[in-house]
Inverse folding.
């Protein structure tokens, strides 16, 4: 791993950051780390107990990944998960996007989200959607809209907006 020295300047520091971050598919061995990251996000953190009340446990997550029901990608630095995103194949829902506060603003969330959307699209998803806060003061509100996600007029029971991403048509093979 390259570590910047004061004499290298900003270019070397940016190169070092790029080298240290690794994007890959989620592995079953990552599941504990996913719960740790989810509990430490800047906005909307959910503890393991909060997630368990929603029926989301390490066991249910492992079962979903193991059965191929969901797909996910992680970003690691020095083999530690610093961000992740997961989506469900059947519904096309982006289930979660979480990045540790110290790693925000580096394009990690955008790349993770893009990877999951691409995989859902490749699998034939006709609709890709997510639920996000309708409050414009919440960072996610602007983040998703800047990436092309648009509200469809629906809301969840807790008031979150349903946002959809327009997917290009998949070419037909004849």
């Amino acid at each position: 791993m390259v570590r910047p020295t004061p004499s290298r300047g900003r270019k070397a520091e940016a190169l070092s950051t790029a080298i240290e971050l690794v994007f890959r598919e989620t592995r079953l061995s990552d599941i504990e780390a996913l719960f740790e990251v989810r509990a430490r996000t800047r906005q909307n953190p959910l503890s393991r107990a909060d997630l368990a009340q929603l029926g989301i446990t390490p066991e249910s997550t492992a079962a979903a990944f193991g059965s191929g029901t969901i797909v996910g990608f992680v970003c690691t630095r020095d083999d530690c998960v610093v961000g992740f995103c997961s989506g469900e194949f059947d519904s096309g829902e982006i289930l979660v996007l979480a990045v540790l506060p110290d790693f925000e603003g580096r394009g990690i969330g955008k790349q993770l989200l893009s990877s999951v959307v691409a995989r859902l699209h490749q699998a034939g998803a006709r609709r890709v959607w997510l639920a996000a806060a309708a409050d414009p003061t919440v960072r996610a509100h602007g983040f998703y809209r800047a990436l092309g996600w648009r509200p469809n007029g629906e809301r969840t029971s807790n008031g979150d907006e349903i946002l959809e991403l327009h997917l290009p048509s998949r070419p037909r093979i004849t």
Q: What stands out?
A: The first strand starts at residue 21 and ends at 25. The chain is about 35% helix and 25% strand. Confidence is low (pLDDT under 50) at residues 1-9. The helical segments are 9-20, 31-39, 48-53, 58-67, 108-122, 139-146.
